[in-house]
Amino acid sequence: MIAVFFPTGAPPAASNRCVSDAELVARARQGDTAAFGELVDRHRAAVYRAAHAALGSASEAEDVAQEAFLAAYRKMASYRGEASFKTWLLTIAWRRALSRRRSLVTRWRRFVSGDPPERPVAAGGGRTPEATLIDAELAGHVQRLVRALPARLRDPILLCADGEQTYHEIAAVLGIPEGTLKWRVAEARRRLKDRLVRLGYGDE
Amino acid sequence: MSETPRRPRRHGPSDLDRTLDAALREMVAGEGPADLRRRVLARIGEAPRRASVAWPALAAAAGIAVTVVAGALLRTAPGPEAVRPHARPSTLAPSAAPPASAPAVRVVARTKPAPLPLTPARPRRADEPPEVRLPLDFEAEVDVEPIELAPLAVVPISGEHIDVTALTIERMEIEPLAEPQP
Fold first, then answer.
1. Label partner for A27 (CA 20 to 30 A): which of A70, A169, B3, B172?
2. What residues of chain A, 85 to 114, have a C-beta less than 8 Å from chain B?
């Protein structure tokens, strides 16, 4: 005798873990908010870092990241797939961050509160305390010098800093040719190193 | 710069590059808020509901505001009774003159506050009567008889017929100019 089993519960929900961005976008367009939630988890760090590179403030970067994801969800119908979803999302986040950076409210807050404090550089393994201290001091100089760079050089070098995005993606986000992006990153590094050498670092 | 001579020079070019990279990474480090997914999905869920509630509420508030403003305007506008005593009888319509037995119109005049004096007040003499200042809310009541106007007869203009003769120009003769004599 053949036993026939019928399902007694709802079928398990489709997993979003091993699905491509394009498939998640298609599901999100059909109203699957869980699929969009998976997209948020995947690109949360990249969006946050891009916003942080533009604004230099963790709290403002969090706000912009949230706004960018909401805007992306509402504009999902306009995404045509010409660029990757990540690039499209980063472009939205970058524009929102720039808009906030240019706003009078943000400028006023920075004027009142001054420059953000330098973030300590994590100590490398096996280094002496003295070397770590010198690195922290040097990191403070670097952060001040980076903030003093013009925005057209500062933005590219900070967007490239985490090494997560390709030059192609960052050039698309900034809306400049890839060659221009590479030149700006090299120029920013050259200026930073030049000024650090003048401060007494790196000419040993 | 005063820091330059005292700076320990322990970084070679490769160390400098490495430290530069580390400092730049630190400037943009972070993963973003861990509950970003929950916050974004919550906002997505509440956005349409908020919009659907907002529009009727806005429309109701606008309606109430229009009603209140209209009521206030109607209350402050002068009514027909207040306008009637100031209306003049028409001079072109004799039948519109008020009858002789019309009741007296009661006019209530409200005094205006006197302008501030530009010069200091003069001291009052002993034989001078004291000045009486009326309060700002003083109201003088005066009875005024209506003016009766005789009916105005308008005679129509009657113009006589005027004959206009046609204009004729007689023939003109032009003589040559006389030559100047030396």
1. A169
2. none
Residues of chain A found within 8 Å of residue B49, distances taken between Cβ atoms: none
Chain A contact present for B43, CB below 8 A: yes
* Per-residue exposure over B63-97, b if at least 16 CB sit within 10 Å of its own CB, e if not: eeeeeeeeeeeeeeeeeeeeeeeeeeeeeeeeeeb
Residue B65 lies in a domain: yes
Longest pairwise C-alpha distance within chain A:
89
Please check whether residue B152 is in contact with residue B94, taking contact to mean a CB–CB distance below 8 angstroms. Answer: yes
Question: Which of the residues B9, B15, B19 would you substitute to probe the A interface, choosing the one with the greatest number of A C-beta atoms within 10 Å?
Answer: B19
Q: How far apart are CA B174 and CA A106, in angstroms?
A: 94
What tokens appear for B78 in the block? 């002068």
Residues of chain B with pLDDT under 50: 1-8, 86-87, 89-98, 100, 102, 104-105, 107
Evaluate whether residue B82 is within a structural domain.
no
Range of the domain at B48: 37-76
With CA atoms as reference, the chain A residue closest to B10 would be A204
The number of residues making up chain A comes to 204
User: What are the structural domains of chain A?
Assistant: 19-116 (1.10.1740.10), 124-204 (1.10.10.10)
Lowest mean pLDDT, pick from A15-19, A131-135, B60-64: A131-135
In angstroms, the separation between the Cα of residue B52 and the nearest Cα of chain A is 16
Domain count, chain B: 1
ipTM over 0.95: no
Tally the residues of chain B.
Answer: 182
Nearest CA in chain A to B48: A74
Is the Cα dihedral A55, A58, A62, A63 positive or negative?
Answer: negative
